[in-house]
């Protein structure tokens, strides 16, 4: 379970999150309009930005869990900008760190139309937005982590990839016992 209590986040002098309290266990979907703080909440939960308040993962304060392997994975791209290496090398590095199976991740990416030879040629930031989203989401899902935070996993995917990716979220053993939060913007008609 991930527990958030009295969470405040200030960025650039603006208060983005104000006193958020939440408990996340199992699968959740978070909906809200653009700019409502979904990604900011996810970034705080992943320890990527400063915050005030309390974030606990499985009863342990987030600040004491730095470097813990197998506890939390995310598709937030900034996590994966560790080294200026080709995407395939990055996949191998994260597989080594997390103990995940590289071939399983590559199979998921192949199912989405992302070819191994493309990953061998380009760095993460050289991939198209949709391919980058598929890559980081596949890494997070394949990590074997107990909790997975997915920030808008279908954003920037072309329609064919969305259709192929959907079963991964609905029926796959990759997500059966994980807590997954999908941040998605809701349409706000004028």
TrEMBL record:
Transmembrane segments: none annotated. GO terms for molecular function: ATP binding; ATP hydrolysis activity. Residues 26-154 form the ABC transporter domain. It comes from the Archaea. InterPro entries: ABC_transporter-like_ATP-bd, P-loop_NTPase. This is ABC transporter related.
């Amino acid at each position: 379970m991930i527990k958030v209590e009295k969470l405040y986040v200030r960025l650039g002098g603006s208060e983005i999150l104000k006193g958020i309290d939440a408990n996340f266990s199992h699968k959740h979907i978070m909906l809200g309009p653009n700019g409502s703080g979904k990604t900011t909440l996810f970034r705080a939960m992943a320890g990527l930005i400063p915050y005030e308040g309390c974030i606990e993962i499985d009863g342990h304060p987030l600040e004491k869990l730095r470097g813990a392997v197998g506890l939390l994975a995310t598709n937030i791209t900034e996590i994966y900008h560790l080294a200026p290496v080709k995407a395939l090398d990055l996949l191998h590095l994260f597989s080594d760190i997390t103990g995940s199976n590289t071939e399983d991740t590559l199979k998921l990416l192949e199912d989405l139309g992302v070819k191994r030879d493309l990953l061998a040629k380009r760095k993460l930031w050289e991939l198209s937005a949709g391919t980058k989203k598929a890559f980081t989401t596949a890494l997070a899902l394949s990590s074997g982590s107990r909790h997975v935070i997915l920030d808008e996993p279908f954003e920037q995917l072309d329609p064919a990839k969305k259709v192929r990716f959907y079963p991964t979220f609905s029926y796959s053993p990759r997500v059966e016992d994980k807590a997954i939060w999908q941040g998605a913007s809701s349409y706000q008609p004028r």
